[in-house]
Write a structure and sequence with these properties.
This protein is mainly α. It has nine helices and five strands. The strands form two sheets. Strands 1-3-2 form a three-stranded antiparallel beta sheet. It is globular, with a radius of gyration of 17 Å.
Length: about 200
Amino acid sequence: MREFLDIVRRESTTVALEQVLHGADLGIVDPLTRQYVTWVWSYSRAPLDSGEALALCLATGASLDEITREHSIAAAAKEKSRKVVKLRTIAQRAREDEELGQRTAARPAPLIDELQNAAWLWSQNQSDRLAAYRGSLGESRWAGLHTLGQAVAECLPDGDEDRRIILGLLGATVREAPSQQGEGEQGQFEGVRTSET
C-alpha cells in the first residue's frame, strides 16, 4: 500500500510540475528544484512539519538531508514542540553561500540555485557579474532558468521579496558578457537602471 501511495505522489507531482512549468522539459529539472517548485506551488512559503517535508521529498525525488543541508533551499527548525522545515529566502542563501549557483565538475548546480544566484546578482545591481554568469550557463540553461523563474514568481505571494527580485530579473534584458571581455569591463542591463550607469 505504501508503494502505491509513493507512486501516486510521484505521478501527481509530475503532473503538477508540468502545469506549473507550462509544459517545459522536465528533464532539466533536478530533484532539488522539483522540491522547491512543488513546495511553493502547494504551500507558498509556509513551514512544513518534518513528516510533510519528507513526504514531499519522496514525491519529488529529493532527500530531506539534501534540502536541509547547509546553504540549501530549506532549514530544519523547531517551532514550539514540533520539528519543521522552512524555506530559506534568496537573500539568506546568498549571504550564507558565496558559491550559490556555481557548478563544479563533481557537482552540477541545481537550477533553483542558479535562478536564485542570478536574481541575487540582479538585486545587488551587479550587472557585470550577472552578464558573465549568464555566459557561463549557456543559452539553453538560461532559457530554462527563465521558465523556472516565471513559474516560481507565479507561485510566491504578492509582496514576497523573492518574488520581487525574480520578477525584476525576468524583466531585465541581461546581455551575455562577450568572451573576450576584460575583467574590469561591465555587462549590461537594457532598460534597467543600475548603480553603475
